[in-house]
Amino acid sequence: MRAALLLVALGLAVYGLVSQWSQVHSALAELAWYDVVGAALAVIAALGFQMLAWRALLTDLGSPLPLAAAVRVNFLGQLGKYVPGAVWAMAAQVSLAQDYRVPKRRSGAASLVSMAITLVVGLVMAGIALPLASAGALRHYWWVLICIPVLLVGLWPGVTKFGLDLALRLVKRPGLDRALTLGGMGRAVGWTALAWLCYGLHAWLLVGDIAGKSLHILLLSAGGYALAWAVGFLLIPFPGGIGPREVALIAVLSPVMSQGPALVVALASRVVMTVGDLLWAGIAVMVGRKGRLGRESLDRPVVLEGPEGLDGPMGPEGSGGLDEPVGREISESLDPAGVRSSAARPGTPSSSDPDRRPEPPNAAAPTPPGH
Question: Which residue, of 118, 156, 182, 260, has the greatest Cβ tally within 10 A?
């Protein structure tokens, strides 16, 4: 199912580019290549900062992930946003996080709060930049900015935990075992703010290539893109905000360019965003492959040297008679001082048999057969 979902998401992402390739090609031809490359690098950095924000939330909830694991879970899961429906990205992240023993309620909570923080920080940027650059844009999309006070209250750790516990109870799941802290929220907000600065830079590079690179254009580009992203995010039926985001961005850019050039910018922005998603997904696939190779090396049968110098493979078919999970536990219990597992000492009951009582330390040895 994971492979099928990944293929569908990749197919839809690529289809979004191929289906509009004639417009995309003409759009890219009107922009300087170095600005397009710069915009793509800014988007790649922004996506990386967003991943770090999500990782900070997961760590604050009690499930820290190594950086490589966070890259794999976050970016492969993010491809789900190209599938119609609002839950695929989060569902994919929850499923992938289980490979690293992250409880579903924690990974789901981290994804939800991460999306809320991204929306809030983006709206704050739009609310600060747009009044200084384009009052007309606010008249069209004022309804998006009124979400800011509600979302800010919802991001207070106590309120967040109450809302998440309520949602978990509705689906008959236990609530969170710990609440987010102000420190964890602050770190996530900081990483997300860096992401939005990079998103604003990418928009400025594309818009400025046509309208000129000035402070006014910078404010309009950054605030306008943040508002357009929020519009696409809130209109849930559109996968990845495709359609509404471009329409909103064209409307915001109307004071400085006509619809034709604005459409060029909107399409170029969509291209570099999709390229960023696909590039990070490729890195995540490579990280996942390397991680699987590492896990396979741990899962191989462990050869332990007995007291008589004989080697006994501890695998499903070895003389130890242990199954694969027990062999993995033994391999993980090895340290420079020796073997801690009782399975390595002949005559000592294995700790993997919970129903067998351990014999007293001074118990007499069993009488050999025939005596």
Answer: 118
- Any domain includes 221: yes
State residue 55's pLDDT score: 96
Q: How many domains does the chain have?
A: 1
pTM for this entry: 0.69
- DSSP annotation string for 197-219: HHHHHHHHHHHHHHH---HHHHH
- What is the extent of the structural domain holding 236? 2-22+37-293
Which residues does 21 contact at the CB level (< 8 Å), separation at least 6?
Answer: none
> Can you list the alpha helix ranges (DSSP code H) found in 87-236?
88-97, 104-133, 135-145, 147-154, 157-170, 182-211, 215-234
Does residue 274 or residue 134 have the better pLDDT? 274
User: By CB neighbour count within 10 A (0-12 exposed, 13-18 middle, 19+ buried), where does 230 fall?
Assistant: buried
- Domain-located, residue 369: no
Residue 344 maps to a domain: no
Reduce the DSSP state of residue 355 to 3 states and report it. Answer: coil
Dmax over CA atoms of the chain, in Å, equals 103
Q: Tell whether 64 is covered by a domain.
A: yes
* Mean pLDDT estimate for the chain: 73
Sign of CA dihedral 164, 170, 171, 174: positive
